[in-house]
Amino acid sequence: MANLLELNNVNHYFHLNTVHETHVLQDIQLTMKEGEFVTIIGGNGAGKSTLLNSIAGTFPVTSGNILLNQEDITKKNVVQRSQFISRVFQDPKAGTAVRLTVGENLAIAACRGKKRTLSRAKTAKNRSFFIEKLKGLNMGLEEKIDTEIGLLSGGQRQSITLLMATLNKPKLLLLDEHTAALDPKSSHIIMNKTKELIDQQHLTTFMITHNMEDALNYGQRLIMLHQGKIVVDLDETAKKNLTVADLLTLFQEQSGHSIQDDALLLQ
Ligand SMILES: Nc1ncnc2c1ncn2[C@@H]1O[C@H](COP(=O)(O)OP(=O)(O)OP(=O)(O)O)[C@@H](O)[C@H]1O
Fold first, then answer.
1. From atom 9 of ligand 1, which residue's Cα is the shortest distance away?
2. Which residue in 54, 97, 181, 256 is deepest, having the highest Cβ count within 10 Å?
3. Does ligand 1 have an atom closer than 6 angstroms to the CB of 59?
């Protein structure tokens, strides 16, 4: 199967050529197949968010190139890339207009990357489409279609953010610790919804998590990042029977360090 995403020798420096220079991504070589669900873990400051930001186009990489469906997107900015790359952030408020209703937020998401044509008939059709999608979440959120999204709980908001991110079937879905701000029960519900949406649409997905169990339980491949380098890359067979303890040992063997990250170890 063809590569959906390809990163070739990607390097990223912050504050290049200053005393504060940090080499955050170091010669990243990474490919993802279409439909692959990859989880990524690593200690604080390993460069996970920077890697996602580089793929999303939040800032230009210092060197190297990024290909999506064989097209070089390295020079495209975040808005141009958002036509085919969706992202869900840790903060459930990010990516939504908190003063607009659930329905209005979904309408904005549905227009992403398309020409906006609004007619009464289309608005009514969209409304029933959104109600069906909300029903699919099985959280009773179809009743909240006219509620301001800012008034919903973190878990409810995050499930709608997920729906918004997947409404137009993105080529690539980036999940940036999207359950980390939720309580354990909501986090579990959202992870199950995430898997459901990914499976239904066969979405190519890259998920950062601090939860090692989730990193092992979800997706077909697991990557560990350490000091800006990929130190572990496990396929489905390799990660199938691994425990969190095995993962910690593997990390130590490959990087020469133990994970100095309480958030990761406390999971
Ligand atoms: N905008 C920025 N300007 C300068 N340095 C930055 C910036 N963003 C991140 N860094 C630095 O880059 C390094 C990697 O940060 P990044 O946020 O990518 O790590 P992370 O693996 O996502 O960490 P965490 O798990 O703690 O969120 C850190 O040393 C961080 O201080």
1. 50
2. 54
3. no
Ligand 1 centre to CA of 11 (Å) is 14
With a pLDDT cut of 90, the percent of the chain lying above it is 68
For residue 49 and ligand 1, the question of a CB distance below 6 A is answered with: yes
The closest alpha carbon to 5, from 29, 39, 23, belongs to 29
Range with the largest mean pLDDT of 21-25, 185-189, 258-262: 21-25
First-to-final CA distance of the chain: 35
44 Cβ below 6 A of ligand 1 = yes
In sequence order, what are the beta bridge partners of 265? none
Q: What is the ipTM of this complex?
A: 0.96
Residue 71: which region, alpha, beta or left (left: phi > 0; alpha: psi -120 to 50)?
beta
- What's the CATH code, domain 3-99+154-265? 3.40.50.300
Tell me the residue ranges of DSSP E strands in the chain: 3-14, 22-33, 37-41, 63-68, 71-72, 85-88, 172-176, 204-208, 221-226, 229-234
Give the model's confidence band at 114: pLDDT under 50 very low, under 70 low, under 90 confident, else very high.
low
- Give the list of residues 6+ apart from residue 131 with CB closer than 8 angstroms, or none: 142, 145
105 lines ligand 1 (CB under 6 A): no
Q: Which of 50, 53, 55, 211 to mutate to test the pocket of ligand 1 (most atoms within 8 A of CB)?
A: 50
- Residue 176 pLDDT > 80: yes
Asked if 116 and 159 touch (Cβ cutoff 8 Å), the reply is no
Task: Label residue 252 by pLDDT band (50, 70, 90).
Answer: confident
Task: Return the pLDDT at 265.
Answer: 53
